[in-house]
Amino acid sequence: MTPLISVGALAERIPRGSVRLLDVRWRLDAPEGRVSYVSAHLPGAVYVDLEHELAQRGHPELGSYPPPTFAQLERSVRRWGIDQGDVVVAYDDNDGVPAARAWWLLRRQGFEVRVLDGGLRAWVAEGLPIEQGDVAPPPGNAQIADVDPGVASIDDAARAPRRGFLVDVRSPEHYRGRVSGRDPVAGHIPGAINLPTVAHISSIGTLKSAEEIRATVAAAGIDARSDIVLYCGTGIASAHSALALASAGIETRIFTGSWSQWALLSSRPVAVGSQPAAALRGA
C-alpha cells in the first residue's frame, strides 16, 4: 500500500467521513504552527503539535526530537479523535517533512496512514475548501501497541556502513562539515553516504515517482535490498526520506537521535568532507 494519497483521492473521501485529518504544521525556524493552522486548514483537520506530541522533550542526551513514549503517543492519538482502524491522513505546508513524522510513528499501529502528496499547497492549488478556527473532536478510542516503527540505535548507526548502508539525508553543506548549525561539531558519521531528502521532492512539492526515487538511490550507490539506516540533523527530516523510499518499495530504519545526538558525544568519531570517511576527526 502506498504511503501517499493524492489531493483528488482525499477530496473524494472527506465527504464520506471516512478519514481523520492531521495538520502537522512545523518548521525548525517556526516550530509553533497553530497560528497558521487556525488561519487556514483542511476541513475537519486537527492540529498536531510536533514538538510535544510527536516527540518527547527534555531528553537532550537522546537528540533534539526523540520519539514519544507509547503512552504519550496514545494520549495524543486519542486527543486527535482517532478510533481503532481509522484512516489517517497527515499533511503540512513544508513538503511533507513534518507530516512524514506522524506517518512513521503510526504506520504499524493498525491504521491506514497516508501523507497528502503536495500538502496544503496542492490542496489550495486545486481550489478545494479551507476552514478556519480550531477543531476539537471527541476523544478517540485508539490503542497504541509497543511496536517498533523502525528505530535504529546510535550503535546500529555506527555499525550500519559495515552491515549495509548509512544514509545522511542532510544538505551537502552540513554533511561536509561546512555548517554546524546548533550542534557542537560539524561533519557526518563515518561511512555515511549523503543523499539529501530534498532529492526526492519535485519542483511542485510532491514526491517524485517511485521510479525516479529508485534511480536516485541506485545512483548514490545504495543497494535497496540491503539494511538501510537513515539519519538527519534532528530526527525529523529522516522520516521524510523513509516515506520517500517506502513509496518506492524500499524499507529503512531511522537513527532518531541523528546528528544532534552523535555530535554531543566526544567519544564518537566525526568525518568531514565529501566522502563517507574523509578526514576523520576524533577516536
Automatic annotation (TrEMBL):
SMART domains for the chain: RHOD
Record-linked Gene3D superfamilies: Rhodanese-like domain
Keyword Transferase attached: yes
InterPro entries assigned: Rhodanese-like_dom (IPR001763), Rhodanese-like_dom_sf (IPR036873), Thiosulphate_STrfase_CS (IPR001307), TST/MPST-like (IPR045078)
PROSITE patterns tied to this protein: RHODANESE_1, RHODANESE_3
GO molecular function, one term: thiosulfate-cyanide sulfurtransferase activity
Domain called Rhodanese: residue spans: 15-132, 160-271
UniProtKB keywords: Repeat, Transferase
Top-rank lineage group of the source organism: Bacteria
UniProt-listed PANTHER family: SULFURTRANSFERASE (PTHR11364:SF27), THIOSULFATE SULFERTANSFERASE (PTHR11364)
Protein name: Sulfurtransferase
Species per Swiss-Prot/TrEMBL record: Microbacterium rhizomatis
